[in-house]
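EI: anyone free to look at a 338-residue chain?
SC: sure, send it
EI:
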Amino acid sequence: MEPQLFALGSSKHWGENVAEHLHIPLSLHEEREFEDGEHKIRPLENVRGRDVFVLNSLYSDTVMSVNDKLCRLLFFISALKDASAAKVSVVIPYFAYARKDRKTKPRDPITMKYMAKLLESAGADQIIALDIHNLSAFQNAFRIPTEHMEAKVLFAPYFTQMSNTEDIMVISPDAGGMKRAESFRETLSELCKKPIGIAFLEKHRSEGVVEGNESVIGEVKDKIAIIIDDIISSGKTIKLAVDALDRAGAKKIFACATHGLFVGSASEILNHPKLDKVLITDSIPPFRLKKEILKEKILLFDTSVLFAKAIKRAQGGDSLVDLIKTYPYITQESFLQS
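SC: here you go
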């Protein structure tokens, strides 16, 4: 039996793309607002005994805050379970509150853990997310099955032709991101059928404050440098990395980040003359960036095919790990020019 797909709020357009790749329609639901600020959300189709996938990327936009989206998602999961859905899988491309996964100060909240409790209590049976900030913390927070998609399978094919004529280095913006950068380097090396180098940036701090004078640990002179990160928020980390790589003599500089929040003065920061392109996914539409930056700097990659394949495999009981291993080889043109 085919799965049922529901896409909530601002994720509807993305959900329609996922549904189109699966050759099934989005299921209908109702989201109703009340004058006192409360709301009601419910499925409009029979879900009894069905495998249901709820698609909702949790980011704040011009219409709804991330907290509003989360509240509606939790209510909708519970409504599906009350309507006797057999299994509810929640697909969350951008998983909000995942960056706060441990205590850094006394009495700090661990919001990653609280998110897991909320989703489990609402009745979620499985979570599918994209490039979580701390994968181990994500997996340990949940008692239900979790699946983790990786944007490296979208980004890596873009650089394969460059590797024929240029030397490439994968760059982690700090030592803590080396595991993510190494994973990308391995995928890119396999696609290019040649060794790809890796380096990282060492931050210099004074009394706990980053001085802005970073050192590159690794040789990048006259090479193409690819900065790998999971999130671009204000863009300050990328700017520091670009400045350091430029000082170290990098020939061209690219940045890859799965989730583009682009808050504050991100448009101005990303308009760096030494930054060639910024590769992001559509987990968060780049609505906060200025149009000229979108046109000149941003390459937006479509995740709908990847998630459609993930949903099909999850519903059929097949391996999503195998999907990540094979996906880069079956798509070479997955990006959308903004």
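EI: Confidence is low (pLDDT under 50) at residues 206-210, 332-338.
SC: 👍
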